[in-house]
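Why do we care about 3D structure at all? Because function follows from shape, and shape follows, mostly, from sequence. That is the central idea of this module. The next example makes it concrete: a single protein chain, its amino acid sequence, and then its structure expressed as tokens.
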Amino acid sequence: MTKRGGAKHGGTRRGGATGPASGSSSPTIPAVAGQGPLRLRRFVANPGFIAFTHALIAINAVALGVEALPGVAESFEGLLEGLFAVSTAWFVIEIALRMLAHGKPLGGFFRNGWNTFDTAIVVLSLLPLAGGVAIVARLARLLRLLRLVSGNDLLRSFVERRLPAGLHLLAAAFLLVLSIYAFALAGFHVAGGVLAEPGAWADLPSALSSTLGWSVIVAAPALPAESAAGTAWLVALGATHLAWLVLTVRGLFGPGAKP
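And the structure:
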């Protein structure tokens, strides 16, 4: 006999997931919040789906570095382009599935700041496809590095100030290294990429050294370009370091900081 307010054989509760049939020992994957189809909500909440996306983001981070090593990148040019194309397609599919799983209204989906963050990165990375400007497309790829933040529990907790002091400092160091890596890659492409003149921005190791020089303002080299693009790179670097400093100090000493 079915109890009032329930459902026979493990029915679906409002806002929850369908439980396994009585006597079943198979684990149940909880569904993500939303009004979309239950199976789709379970699919996007599946650890395999999430792990695949995070692994692809990490592989892209490595591939972007390989692309900035002219001697190596030439041998893997076709493979890298294929990886970037497949990754772009998957990230679009992933965001679309997450939206469908949430269901209507989509306003609820975007009330989650991390959902908005991920969607903005995917949309911005698609914009160069309409223009066909090579350097813009390469710089837009670097936005994928930002998804290392949304896809990593430690870095998300750093931004949300949910870490004790020791872990907060560890996350801060990781985020600083990631930002220097991203700006080194950006500087490499602004300087001309594989066509850059030999010097401070000709490859990834040189670009990392140059970015560190500008980060501590000690023996800073020439900018990646003498044009407005070089100035914009420097302004963005300074703004990013300032934001990092504010997040770090706020997490250590601000309201709600954990000891």
